[in-house]
Design brief:
By secondary structure, the protein is of the alpha/beta class. The chain has helices at residues 31-46, 49-56, 60-71, 81-84, 88-93, 100-109, 143-159, 171-175, 177-182; strands spanning 3-7, 78-80, 110-114, 118-121, 125-127, 136-137, 141-142, 163-166, 188-189. It has nine helices and nine strands. The longest helix has 17 residues, at 143-159.
Amino acid sequence: MRAAILLPPSKGQHAGGTGTPWSELGAQVSPAQRTVAKALRSAMRTGNQTQLAKLLGATGDTLRDARAMNSTVLQSPTMPAIERYRGVLYEELAYATMLAAARRRADRSLLIFGALHGVALARAPLPAHRLAFTAAFPELGRLATWWRPRITEELGRMLQGAVVWDLSPRTIPRSMQSTHQRLRNSPQVR
């Protein structure tokens, strides 16, 4: 039986990257991901400090850095999601130190949530960004709500028949309740 491990995003991210930008990746970046990225980029260009502070949950230098990062989200170099995020969970996972066979299993099993990309496999290319599911754009509304039907469909396909270890914060699975109800016949370990 295969495993699926659901991971949260992290506010902490490694900067830079050497991967192809989303603007050049074609079908590897979904229409939904492009929609969110364009809304984010637009908000960075047109929003004032107060609006952006609320949208990004940041102030001062953090807001300045986030605005710069998010303004070029489609043109920035990428790195695999599992390498982009940092923080206690990602450090303890120690992906970079795994043996090759373990890394291949992780590449197939780790699903990482994020407000920019919805849900992605470990090796999915991600640009540096700052965005939370609680953010709301005029054209999309609250991202958790906007992503719900899109992630529900994808998770249904990705998790079918898998043993699921859910390490994501409760706000993410609650926003995807229909998926969890539909998959309740799959064994889940929390």
